[in-house]
Amino acid sequence: MNEDYPLFAQDFTGRHQDADPGGRTFRAGRVARPDSRNGSQVVSASACRSAAARLLVAMLLLAASGCARGKSAPPPQSVHWLCMGTTAAVSAPAGQSARVQRLRETVGTAFAEIERDLSIFLTNSVLNAVNAAAGDPTPVPVNIHVAAVLRHALDVAKAGGGAFDPTVGPLMALWGFRSGSVTHPPAAAAITETLERVGWRHVRLDLTDPAAPAAALTRPGMRLDLGGIAKGYAVDLAYDRLRAAGDTDFLINLGGNLRAHGVPGAGRTGWGIGVRDPFHGDRILGTVALREGEATATSGNYERFVVLDGVRYAHIIDPRSGRPVTGVAGVTVIAPTAMQADALSTTLFVLGPEAGLRLLAAFPGCQALWVLDEQPVRTVSSPGFVMR
Hints:
Blueprint: E1 15-16, E2 26-27, H1 45-65, E3 77-83, E4 86-92, H2 97-118, H3 126-132, E5 140-141, H4 144-159, H5 169-174, H6 188-195, E6 203-206, E7 214-217, H7 230-244, E8 250-254, E9 257-261, E10 271-276, E11 284-290, E12 295-300, E13 305-308, E14 311-314, E15 317-318, E16 323-324, E17 328-335, H8 338-360, E18 367-372, E19 379-381
Antiparallel strand pairs: 1-2, 3-4, 4-8, 5-7, 6-7, 8-9, 9-12, 10-11, 12-17, 13-14, 15-16, 17-18, 18-19
């Protein structure tokens, strides 16, 4: 999540159906799919940030009232800013403006730290030092943040059979998701050639000395891209620092990667978060209340895509085939940590509900909801994912 589409908040209007084997489904009203546009386009970062900012305001309103139906309460105090190419925010109960500013300093410092280490857009980032040495068997020294994210990314890649792959960078570039300069879909031969430079098994992470981790990419031209997991890690880092300082009752958001502690106000039972309808930006499919320390993230095909030769391609690529994923519009994950939620939302988007439900068994405490790319809207969820 995720740079994908943020979580949104309003009243739930969907209708549940009887459970299907392996999951639970419900239908909402019929909606129209956004029209494709001719030419080549990557949705601009500023447009995504603007949409995220608008949706964030609505989300925070739900946080004040969504967990206490029928009761009115002032909205949480919040501050938001631009960071890591998306909208960041931190919130606390109403009337705590001075405290929220202090929280923002801690959270903002953590986010900036991770951006410096893990950004693919900063030439002097630690991650790009590893990328620059691709093909050299000598490991490049990295810090604890890069090592922690890369280790979890490799674990998820292995568990998901390569549906999540931290070396997806060359494919993202091939399809124009990083530059916007591509005008036609890549030829099959180009995809095959690029796949030779993709593969999590060609990453070497040396943790022999925990105080001096190192990493290497064994094939020339490989490129790490941790966009599907780094924001979740940044949220966890900020969360841990706030808790270490004794802070309670807050919600952290980085581009739709959220983690909560406590409650948004007296008499509340949790931070209420809406799951956005990927076909209608002003509607939701349902709401969830994040419990103590829980996190959530959403991956979707809504805001980031390219249009090549008149066909719309979502930015989530299956690293196994080298092609953008079809058939799924969005996946929302609830997990014990934001990094888990972030990585799993991408992985489960690629896998789809059938294989994804099997994978979830390996991740205790994680639940997921798939929104399929079809009309009328149909969703599939894991048995423990309940709108609450």
